[in-house]
Design a protein that fits this description.
Elements: H1 2-17, H2 22-33, H3 71-83, H4 89-114
C-alpha cells in the first residue's frame, strides 16, 4: 500500500516537473495550492473510499458549519478529479490531504524564517 501511494505521489511530482505547456503548469499549481473541498460528513465508512465518482454537491454539506459548498468549489473539485485522473474517493482523499499538509508546511516554514 505504501509503495502504491509513493508511485501516485511520484507521478504527480513528475507531472508538475515536466508540464507540456506553461498554462498546464499554472493550472496544476492553482489546483494544488488553492484550498480544496472535502466531503467530511459524507465519508462515514471505509467503503466510501472505493466509490468511483465524486459525491454529489449536496454530499459536501458540512454539519459543523451548517452550509453547503459553493457551485464554484464543486466545479473545482470536478476539475481536480478529472485533471489528476482520480479513480476513486480514496485517491481524492489522499490528494486532498497531501496538498493540505504541503500548504500548511509552507506556511510554517515561512513563519519559522520570519520569526
Amino acid at each position: 500500500m505504501k509503495e502504491m501511494k509513493r508511485l501516485k505521489i511520484g507521478k504527480l511530482v513528475s507531472d508538475i516537473q515536466a508540464p507540456t505547456h506553461i498554462s498546464n503548469l499554472k493550472l496544476i499549481l492553482n489546483l494544488l495550492t488553492d484550498k480544496g473541498v472535502y466531503p467530511y460528513d459524507y465519508m462515514n465508512s471505509w467503503g466510501k473510499f472505493d466509490e468511483i465518482k465524486l459525491p454529489k454537491e449536496e454530499d459536501f454539506y458540512s454539519q459543523l458549519y451548517e452550509e453547503n459548498i459553493t457551485d464554484k468549489d464543486y466545479t473545482r473539485a470536478n476539475i481536480v478529479w478529472k485533471h489528476f485522473n482520480i479513480k476513486n474517493l480514496g485517491e481524492y482523499h489522499d490528494l486532498y490531504l497531501m496538498t493540505d499538509v504541503y500548504l500548511l508546511t509552507d506556511v510554517l516554514k515561512i513563519l519559522r524564517i520570519c520569526v
